[in-house]
């Protein structure tokens, strides 16, 4: 039996959530059960009440707003605990077409992919501003290089994840999960595919960021952090080499003047060059230390994976016990 859980992170989405829920599919080929999970990320409106009114199967509450990345991770954890074989993440604002969930999960149902990312066709999407199109394409190109994947829409929030892939992903950023997740998945050699999807017109501005410059800055920090986490030696050695080369240039300048008999007036070049050279060596050593820490991180991730699998087995056994108890209750009542 294949269970799909559609998770929807929400922050004050009481107005738009009903339309999103109504648009979700009830049947998909290859899927035996479809359930809906809403993550109420500290909403101050009636988001949770609306979700209950529309019969949402699972609701996760955050007492205060913790951000989209934390809401996404909470949804993954809850979906895995509920026995999801495939998890689809979609937005509550109705940007994505609910019917496209069927085509999004198809590569995972067939075993062709671990993760499927909805491709909104950023280059010619009429719902996007030209500046947004350019930024999205540039950001996707950078994420492609960092994650070693072939994705055309890296920041799309419409994505399907297999159970195995969800168990291996742990979001560490506090801003947005999109790029962090893809860099992790790419470095862990999970199979990721793009699936063309449709989008609805945007009815309100994004609540994730206040301005385009802020979004760019925060995404750059997220990408740099994620890349450095999984490639510490290369990142630190590259910086160390740049510093060493920058330090070697003034030292060579000093040696040139010294060989010409004019070294006394250029000692500052020797001081600056020596400082940069030492800083480059220290940065390289930090890279080696970070690489050793990275090896330890892999062991911790393996341990976390086993713990998640054990927790899910326990939860599965508890659900089986509850079903058996529910079946046995009518029999007891008849005997009584």
Structural commentary:
- By secondary structure, this protein is an alpha/beta fold.
- The chain folds into 2 domains: 3-209, Spore Coat Polysaccharide Biosynthesis Protein SpsA, Chain A; 232-335.
- It is 56% helix and 12% strand.
- The chain contains 10 helices and 7 strands.
- It has helices at 17-22, 47-53, 68-81, 101-109, 130-147, 163-168, 177-187, 212-230, 232-259, 267-335, and strands spanning 3-10, 33-41, 58-62, 86-89, 115-119, 159-162, 192-196.
- Strands 3-2-1-4-6-5-7 form a 7-stranded mixed sheet, sandwiched between helices.
- Helix 9 (232-259) runs antiparallel to helix 10 (267-335).
- It is elongated and about 105 Å long.
In short:
The chain has 336 residues and is an alpha/beta fold. The protein has helices at residues 17-22, 47-53, 68-81, 101-109, 130-147, 163-168, 177-187, 212-230, 232-259, 267-335; strands at residues 3-10, 33-41, 58-62, 86-89, 115-119, 159-162, 192-196.
